[in-house]
Write a structure and sequence with these properties.
Blueprint: H1 6-19, H2 28-42, H3 45-53, H4 69-91, E1 97-99, H5 103-114, H6 119-136, H7 143-150, H8 153-174, E2 178-181, E3 185-188, H9 199-215, H10 221-236, H11 268-272, H12 284-313, H13 325-342, E4 347-349, H14 353-358, H15 364-374, H16 376-379, H17 381-384, H18 389-404, H19 415-431, H20 434-451, H21 460-473, H22 481-489
Antiparallel strand pairs: 1-4, 2-3
Helix pairs in contact: 2-15, 3-4, 4-13, 4-15, 5-8, 6-12, 6-13, 8-18, 8-19, 8-20, 9-10, 9-18, 10-18, 12-20, 19-20, 20-21
């Protein structure tokens, strides 16, 4: 480590000692630089997450409300900060966390908008999911490993790829490209009518610009693409924002320095729990289905991401075990609970952490640096609110494309798994529900095995999960079996 005199040198030495930086073969300056690199690659979440959670009234005529934009931005910044600090100080790993892509879209478009569940109740489901994830991750129980091992690897891969497709259709809709059609359900918008003032055209420009920058290895490609499109297409040209029904985007300099101080979503999850199971409220069956979907995706996504970036960082040993994995998983779970309590969807580890690792990040100081920088979202709320949807939506398509890469690892030649994996993937965008994709993939897998008499290939955990999920879709009368059981025993 470079020698520095005075108080600065003492602080550098304290950081070195706290994180074991010299032992890891790095420097304080290198760890901070790596943290900045990771932040630039994932800072787009400060734009995208509030944009997704604050459901535009135009979509539902105001019948269903989303999390207020500033409240979602405040929660996003604080939850990412807390989770990164825990990951850095407790697990001492260079992995950054923030509200996860895919689950935030599921939260808004499938749960709140599709099922009509109040966002406060959805936050309650996320909080309980986080608490369950924390319990499952306790090394004394070992349930996390057992659950992960019970689900076929190909279905876990298909879950990630399906979320990518789910993000893509949402992104294309927000770009103004995919629209409703009374006969074919969906259609391409009238591209022949695009002009330089069309948000659809600027969404295309943004998409291509991000793709080119990423192919050239430019760090922060998504954030630069979003900001560039916002400034030129939105503020200078005044292009339309078709998703929000805005004819011409404008720039309000007076609101530029507004601070995200809306704390109205804090604690909303707890007060909403009392509405679950009441007349006119969310049924217990719906609540449990949503909570299980959040839990499964959180476990799969976190596991895949942690081990992927862990291998890149050299923190996976010869037994395929990640260093400080228990602390890392629990940091994710605590971050999710904190985020839900503040007003945002599931927090998870970001694959973009790989950018900082490539730049030399080896210790928790990298994660702490990202967490501190995430607080900048609170200070720039006025800027973020003026970013048009057509500039943000291409990021969803880009992330979706990156998540689809893993589909190549599925054993498509194995008939026992190919159809369940395919159902897992396509059911997510076609039903607008991650939960439906996960459920029917597992149900199909177990059903195929049982019909072939291959019961030895099934373990009790996956069979129980399949039976439980089937209860949500089948049952007497108009309700599911789960609802019928709940009503019968009087819960």
């Amino acid at each position: 480590m470079r020698c520095v005199n005075g108080k600065t040198g003492e602080k550098m030495e304290a950081l070195d000692k706290q994180f074991g930086i010299t032992e890891a073969g790095s420097t304080v300056e290198g760890e901070i630089r790596a943290g900045v690199t990771t932040f630039l690659t994932m800072a787009y979440i400060l734009f995208v997450n509030p944009n997704l959670l604050s459901l535009p009234p135009i979509l539902t005529d105001g019948a269903v409300e989303g999390v207020p934009f500033e409240a979602a931005l405040f929660a996003t910044a604080i939850a990412a900060f807390v989770a990164c600090i825990i990951m850095g100080l407790w697990a001492n790993l260079p992995f950054a966390l923030a509200p996860g892509m895919g689950l935030n879209a599921y939260f808004t478009f499938a749960v709140v908008m599709g099922m009509g569940i109040a966002w406060e109740v959805a936050l309650a489901a996320v909080f309980i999911e986080g608490a369950l994830f924390l319990v499952i991750s306790l090394p004394q129980l070992g349930w996390r490993t057992e659950m992960l091992n019970s689900i076929p690897t190909d279905l876990k891969i298909a879950t990630g790829a399906g979320i990518g497709m789910f993000l893509a259709i949402i992104g294309l809709s927000e770009m103004g490209w995919v629209v409703d059609h009374p006969t074919t359900l969906v259609d391409m918008t009238n591209a022949g009518a695009w002009s330089y003032e069309s948000g659809e055209l600027w969404a295309l420009i943004c998409l291509l610009a991000i793709a080119v920058m990423m192919s050239q290895g430019i760090k922060g490609a998504m954030i630069w693409g979003i900001l560039g499109t916002t400034i030129v297409g939105g503020w200078v040209i005044g292009a339309s924002d078709p998703f929000n029904g805005v004819e011409s985007v404008s720039f309000d300099s007076g609101a530029l320095f507004d601070i995200a101080d809306d704390t109205s979503a804090i604690g909303a999850a707890f007060s909403a729990l009392g509405d679950v199971g009441t007349d006119g409220g969310t049924t217990i069956g719906q609540f449990v289905l949503v909570m299980i979907a959040f839990l499964f995706v959180d476990i799969f996504d976190t596991s895949g991401t942690l081990y992927s970036v862990g291998r890149q960082a050299g923190y996976v040993d010869e037994n395929d075990e990640l260093k400080n994995s228990d602390e890392a998983f629990m940091a994710d779970a605590i971050g999710t609970m904190v985020g839900a309590a503040l007003g945002t969807s599931t927090v998870t580890t970001y694959i973009e952490s790989a950018a900082g690792i490539e730049d030399g990040g080896k210790t928790g100081l990298t994660a702490v640096t990202v967490g501190v920088l995430m607080l900048s979202g609170i200070l720039f709320a006025g800027l973020f609110k003026q970013i048009p949807t057509f500039a943000v939506a291409p990021a969803l398509v880009i992330v979706g494309a990156m998540m689809m890469r893993q589909a190549a690892d599925i054993d498509w030649g194995n008939g026992d798994i190919a159809i369940p994996a395919f159902l897992t993937m396509v059911m997510m965008p076609f039903t607008y529900s991650i939960a439906d994709g996960i459920a029917w993939g597992i149900i199909a897998y177990v059903g195929i095995k049982l019909m072939q008499g291959k019961t030895n290939d099934l373990n009790p955990v996956v069979m129980a999960v399949a039976a439980l999920m089937a209860m949500f879709y089948m049952g007497p009368g108009d309700g599911s079996t789960f609802d019928w059981v709940v009503e019968t025993i009087g819960i």
